Backbone:
């Protein structure tokens, strides 16, 4: 009868337990499918993100190299003399003119018009569609601006007083991000564009809005950042020396590495990548814990079989490996499929996002090892680590305890004495205590989903609030910045004197407004009295209340600082208080100024300080009645176009919010959906786990006569309390995390958007959680209904 | 002696709730011996079997199998010990629910260095027709036969059976006992069978009676009665 196997040990070389892995997955297909889909979509998104990001970064950097992007540029108030340009070129750089005209278009927009750039020259344009201009009335404009404004090839656009026909769409390497001024809070691809016209076309547009811009290009392309900065400093020194000699003025000086229009897109790509990677890993961790809980739940259901296997000689490691396999397979397939999605469908989401934000040249999709590592290997490692940790711990229990179905680590029977409340309440409490690990995962997951939801739902009200505040705190409908002081008769016009200083250590520009004492526009602000400071200036005509040397700085400490009102954004961003003395410095000189904050003023459009015009002029050593701009609620038609440097209007002030909205228009709703799916997934899986773990008890309750609704009240309500409770109670935590992220983001940008969420937002957050749970509750009810009464009798066999 | 238990003591609980389950139990079994451990509930027979199987630790005393002392073994060594020497059969069959009969037996075969031929075993166990069924498609007797198949397929030195017929009817029980008898005879496996059914004593070489954690008697049968002839 019984005979030994002829082939001996070779008969069963492969662990037969492996045969059940697919069956396990099939048995729990609903749960694994939910995890799989979520993981696939998220990995797909992350993979697509990295692939698109890598591909576009290559295109961006190649574009910079191939199109010979400038090493820097400077803008002079008057045309630079040949001598200056010669001296600059002696610094081993090539200098060339790239004069531009800022022309108003469509009432609210600005088109910055350059002459056609030479092929192979500095900042060579990349043609994306159509053709470069050949006729004098043709213009090639930025692709993104054209898309944002529905402008196509052949359309006509206004540029100052002229009408030009759009002949092509281009990307300029020095405007990969459409910053009008380097100091702007945000780029503005909705209302600002660059354009190229023929040389004759350029001359025909007049000199209104003309800027004498010169670009330099380092001969040595291998300079490191420090060397590039040193070279820029040397060039600046040459210019400053020339200014002292000729009386010309330097309006702007920007080294490539500091130029937002060139650098922001590249920096943003890298920054976002880190954020999305972190997000993916958190999601994978949450899912890994859910899968580990699922595997642990299987252990509980199969405890006796496991006890027998352990008693028969299966090692703990073998069983840990076995129960880890299903989650790993699901994760691996999700990762592989996610990568396929990443290279195909998902890539386009990200590409579209970038093309919606930046003016980039065409790209070629490249293989990304980083994407493979970050979206396949790292998630798999995380899943392996978490499931190994949970299962290794769970399987530490001796075989005998498995055989007896006693799966607690502690041998003590800790029975919690619950005296208060009805039987139902106490029963629910026991369900809660019994499932603490699952509920911890649920709370952590809900917190993270809450953070996603916060981004999804919270950004729009925040932007709306900002825009609303900007508009209510707008000083005037029109804020003219003049090239030279020009008097106007218009009664609406009110002079102001403005200056720009830099926040030390941050390089952020801070606006200083010198306002008329009896201003019609800042009626709700009382300008501080700077009598003493002005007196000091008058007493010593040579004294300028800024200092250059440390010695002078020490002397300055005894002098009264000019008193200012600070915009609330400034106070928040740099965490100042009324009474603080702040120091700001000149951008292109080492001169530093002291100011005392004596109050705040609500002005959300920029980080600004306010004082009376005379004081500001005194502070900067200007004539007492000097001014360089007008506030007006109506257009000042008396001003000649050539006199105006720029006009700040409503859309310039809300540019940051408009641009953030545009850039993330597709991402924020996606965050909301991710959050809702995550809510559903967590509540469904962990709630279901609680029911399955208690299937025998539920069955027994049914035998005793409890109906489905009563059983559900015991088990589903426990999960509901935790889920809905977590949704509500984690809001402060989520908000705290969001505020930290928000602050970080705001420091990356110029300006400040005050954090604000309306009460309706919190209500929405809670509603999303409750509605998600309500949907899950119906599914769980179905599950409870399906548990047969015979389940309780199975163990009796 | 192939299998030795020397002055085994075991208690559960602490302080006032402490219960001494085994008191200085010593027992020696020869290779190939079929030993029936008899005793009422709570007599300590299952605990003794579990200590023998290395799934429960004695408070004191020694377990020696083929010269290897078990009390100094670490968890991994114990797993190897069980893998190498032991086959387990329990009252509840503890089969893996989503593996077929054949696959459940393969689980045992995987653990052995020199397993039996599974096809032959399936025939001998009367499970050939049912080999592709999963446990919940089988009767209790078929499930227990599968669990015996899983235990013996790796050809263990010692087969430990904890109330293997406890959940079965009379005729199925006899079938199972006959199977255990066959394994013992064919492979000279040492079999320790825990039961409270006094009628099974006839099929043993050795009958050890336990009561309140102490050996009440330890006798040898001169003649074994075939399992098929046992009546109760």
Residues:
């Amino acid at each position: 009868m019984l005979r030994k196997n002829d082939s001996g040990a070779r008969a069963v070389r492969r662990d037969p337990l492996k045969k059940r892995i697919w069956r396990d997955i099939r048995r729990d297909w609903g749960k694994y499918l939910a995890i799989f889909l979520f993981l696939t979509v998220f990995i797909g998104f992350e993979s697509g993100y990295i692939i698109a990001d890598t591909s576009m970064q290559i295109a961006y950097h190649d574009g910079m190299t191939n199109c010979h992007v400038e090493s820097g540029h400077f803008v002079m108030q008057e045309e630079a003399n040949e001598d200056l340009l010669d001296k600059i070129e002696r610094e081993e750089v090539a200098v060339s003119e790239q004069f531009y005209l800022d022309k108003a278009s469509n009432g609210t927009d600005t088109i910055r018009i350059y002459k056609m750039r030479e092929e192979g020259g500095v900042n060579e344009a990349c043609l994306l569609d159509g053709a470069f201009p050949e006729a004098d009335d043709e213009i090639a404009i930025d692709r993104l601006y054209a898309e944002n404004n529905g402008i196509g090839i052949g359309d006509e656009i206004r540029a100052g007083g002229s009408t030009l026909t759009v002949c092509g769409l281009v990307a300029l390497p020095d405007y990969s991000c459409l910053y009008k001024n380097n100091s702007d809070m945000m780029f503005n691809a909705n209302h600002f564009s660059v354009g190229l016209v023929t040389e004759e076309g350029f001359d025909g547009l007049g000199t209104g809005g003309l800027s004498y811009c010169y670009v330099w290009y380092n001969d040595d392309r291998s300079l490191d950042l420090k060397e590039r900065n040193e070279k820029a400093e040397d060039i600046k020194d040459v210019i400053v020396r020339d200014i002292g000699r000729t009386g010309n003025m330097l309006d702007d000086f920007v080294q490539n590495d500091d130029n937002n229009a060139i650098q922001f897109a590249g920096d943003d790509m890298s920054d976002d990548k880190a954020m999305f990677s972190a997000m993916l890993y958190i999601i994978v961790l949450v899912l890994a814990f859910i899968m580990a809980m699922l595997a642990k739940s299987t252990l509980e259901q199969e405890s006796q079989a496991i006890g027998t296997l352990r008693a028969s000689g299966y090692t703990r490691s073998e069983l840990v490996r076995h129960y880890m396999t299903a989650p790993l397979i699901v994760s691996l397939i999700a990762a592989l499929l996610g990568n396929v999605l990443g290279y195909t469908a998902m890539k386009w989401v990200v590409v579209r996002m970038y093309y919606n934000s930046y003016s980039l040249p065409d790209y070629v999709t490249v293989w990304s090892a980083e994407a493979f590592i970050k979206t396949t290997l790292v998630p798999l490692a995380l899943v392996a680590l978490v499931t190994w940790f949970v299962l290794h711990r769970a399987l530490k229990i001796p075989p005998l305890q498995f055989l007896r179905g006693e799966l607690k680590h502690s041998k003590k029977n800790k029975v919690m004495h619950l005296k208060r409340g009805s039987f139902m309440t106490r029963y629910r409490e026991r369900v809660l205590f019994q499932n603490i690990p699952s509920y911890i995962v649920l709370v952590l997951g809900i917190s993270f989903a809450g953070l996603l939801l916060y981004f999804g739902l919270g950004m729009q009200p925040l932007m709306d609030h900002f825009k609303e505040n900007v508009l209510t705190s707008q000083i005037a409908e029109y804020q003219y910045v003049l090239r030279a002081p020009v008097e106007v008769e218009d009664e609406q016009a009110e002079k102001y004197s403005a200056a720009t200083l830099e926040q030390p250590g941050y390089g952020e520009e801070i606006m200083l407004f010198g306002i008329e004492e009896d201003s019609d526009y800042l009626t709700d602000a009382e300008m501080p009295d700077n009598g003493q400071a002005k007196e000091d200036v008058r007493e010593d005509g040579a004294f300028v209340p800024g200092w250059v040397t440390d010695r002078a700085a020490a002397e300055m400490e005894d002098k009264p600082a000019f008193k200012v009102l600070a915009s609330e954004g400034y106070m928040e961003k740099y965490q100042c208080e009324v009474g603080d003395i702040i120091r700001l410095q000149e951008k292109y000189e080492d001169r530093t100024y002291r100011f005392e904050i004596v109050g705040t003023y609500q002005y959300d459009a920029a980080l600004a300080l306010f004082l009376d015009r005379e004081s500001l002029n005194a502070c900067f050593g200007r004539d007492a009645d000097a001014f360089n701009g007008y506030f007006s609620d109506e257009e000042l038609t008396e001003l000649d176009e050539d006199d105006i440097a720029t006009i700040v209007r409503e859309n310039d002030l809300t540019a940051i919010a408009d641009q953030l909205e545009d850039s993330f228009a597709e991402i924020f709703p996606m965050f909301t959906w991710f959050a809702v799916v995550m809510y559903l997934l967590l509540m469904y899986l962990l709630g279901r786990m609680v029911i399955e773990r208690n299937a025998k008890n539920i069955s027994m309750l049914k035998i005793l006569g409890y109906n489905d609704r009563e059983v559900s009240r015991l088990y589903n309500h426990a999960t509901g309390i935790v889920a809905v409770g977590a949704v509500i109670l984690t809001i402060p935590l989520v908000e705290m995390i969001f505020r930290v992220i928000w602050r970080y983001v705001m420091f990356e940008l110029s300006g400040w958007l005050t954090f604000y969420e309306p009460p309706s937002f919190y209500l929405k957050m809670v509603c999303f959680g409750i509605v998600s749970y309500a949907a899950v509750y119906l599914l769980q009810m179905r599950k409870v209904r399906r548990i047969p009464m015979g389940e309780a009798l199975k163990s009796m066999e | 002696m192939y299998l030795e238990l020397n002055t085994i003591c075991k208690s559960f609980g602490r302080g006032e709730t402490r219960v001494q389950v085994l008191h200085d139990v010593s027992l020696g079994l020869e290779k190939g011996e079929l030993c029936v451990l008899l005793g009422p509930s709570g007599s300590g027979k299952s605990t003794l079997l579990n200590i023998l199987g290395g799934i429960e630790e004695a408070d004191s005393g020694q377990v020696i199998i083929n010269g290897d002392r078990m009390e100094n073994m670490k968890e991994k060594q114990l797993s190897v010990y069980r893998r190498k020497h032991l086959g387990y059969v329990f009252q509840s069959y503890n089969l893996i629910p989503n593996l077929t009969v054949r696959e459940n037996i393969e689980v045992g075969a995987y653990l052995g260095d020199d397993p039996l031929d599974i096809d032959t075993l399936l025939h001998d166990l009367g499970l050939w027709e049912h080999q592709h069924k999963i446990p919940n498609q089988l009767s209790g007797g078929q499930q227990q036969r599968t669990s015996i198949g899983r235990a013996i397929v790796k050809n263990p030195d010692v087969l430990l059976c904890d109330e293997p017929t406890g959940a079965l009817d009379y005729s199925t029980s006899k079938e199972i006992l006959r199977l255990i008898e066959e394994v013992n005879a064919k492979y000279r496996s040492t079999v320790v069978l825990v039961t409270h059914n006094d009628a099974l004593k006839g099929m043993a070489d050795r009958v050890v009676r336990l009561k309140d954690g102490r050996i009440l008697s330890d006798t040898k049968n001169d003649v074994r009665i075939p399992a098929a002839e046992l009546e109760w």
